[in-house]
Design goal:
globular, Nucleotidyltransferase, domain 5, 2 domains, 42% helix, 18% strand, 9 helices, alpha/beta, 339 residues
């Protein structure tokens, strides 16, 4: 009899629910919140209200697509943090009530760990490659940029992280400066495919060790565009694709140079990426090149498991279920945390 886990994700602006049978994905449903696009970023109060509207339909759809009833569930897993507190409260409150009403275990999940554990989601045929322990994971999103040694499903150690801004935030900020729609990261990626990545040069930070910094790069982009616009008010429009390609190349270079340094220091050549920016085509292409030139084993998640999703919460819940690592009804969401 399989172990059915319901996963609930509500850390930001996506309301998501998924069901796994052991580590095999049965359903993965997400309701996006388009309302934030007109504000150029996520509005926390609007996000929490939308979660309240979406959570019941999303969970109903996930159970329906998995073709099981709620009474067949073995446990319910939810994102406890980090994230927006108002959004987290909606998911946590529903998960606690669901768990109590069905008399099944409640499992809390760390959002950042879940992004990494997305690599352990099995497809129906169980043929997709799974990283071997230990492996290095480059976790890159709008709010986090980390290098993590993963020794076991929940034995993870951060060996490098951003000291200021995240890579994903840099993509979005650059897009906003250029007047591109929100969310900016995917738009930059799309335009970059049409541009020349060597056309423009931006400063790269000099940060010791394995830590990252992106605040200087954001400033470099801002000042560069400010000066060019003084010379030609149509500069951005005329060079949009080349600008996107050059910015993307710079960010990817910063990420991969630190990753190469981490491999040299640790000797680990099992390499994975995770988080929303792991969907970026430039980063994926760069890693594939390193697979060929360095001989690393590279693990790149399917696009559906890069951005915030509930499948990663459900599969993380499965591994905690095996350990009987259950949560208390009194556990409160947290906005900030690593592991």
């Amino acid at each position: 009899m399989p172990c059915y886990i319901l996963g609930i994700e509500s850390s930001c602006d996506d309301t998501a629910a998924a069901v796994t049978a052991d580590d095999v994905i049965m359903s993965n449903v997400t309701a996006n919140q388009e309302i934030h696009a007109s504000f150029g970023g996520v509005v926390p109060e609007l996000a929490s209200r939308a979660h309240q509207q979406n959570i019941i339909p999303v969970i109903h759809a996930a159970l329906q697509k998995a073709n099981i009833s709620k009474n067949q569930l073995s446990a319910v897993a939810y994102t406890r943090g980090p994230g927006l507190l108002g959004s987290l409260l909606v998911g946590a409150s529903f998960a606690k009530a669901f768990s109590m009403g069905l008399s099944i275990p409640l499992i809390e999940i760390n959002h950042l760990q879940a992004h990494i554990l997305a690599h352990f989601i099995r497809n129906a045929s169980k043929t997709n490659p799974i990283p071997s322990f230990p492996f290095l994971c480059l976790t890159v999103s709008g709010g986090h940029t980390q290098l993590v040694i993963v020794k076991d499903h929940f034995d993870m150690h951060i060996i490098g992280q951003t000291i200021d801004d995240a890579a994903g935030e840099t993509f979005d900020k650059a897009a906003k400066i250029m007047g591109l729609p929100y969310p900016g990261g995917p738009v930059v990626d799309k335009l970059a495919a049409e541009g020349d990545p060597a056309r423009f040069t931006f400063s790269k930070p000099s940060v010791p060790g394995l830590d990252f910094s992106f605040s200087g790069l954001k400033t470099s982009i801002l000042y560069f565009l400010r000066d060019r616009l003084k010379e030609d008010e149509h500069f951005i429009e005329k060079n949009k694709a080349d600008l996107c390609a050059s910015i993307q190349r710079t960010i990817v270079d910063i990420l991969l140079l630190k990753l190469e340094k981490a491999v040299l220091q640790t000797g680990i050549t099992e390499i994975a990426i995770a988080g929303g920016v792991s969907a970026n085509s430039g980063l994926r292409s760069g890693l594939q090149n390193l697979r060929q030139t360095r001989g690393w084993n590279i693990y790149i998640p399917p696009l559906a498991y890069t951005t915030d999703n509930a499948a990663m919460i459900a599969v993380s819940g499965y591994f905690k279920f095996l350990k009987k690592d259950f949560a208390s009804q009194s556990a409160a969401p947290y906005a900030r945390s690593s592991f």
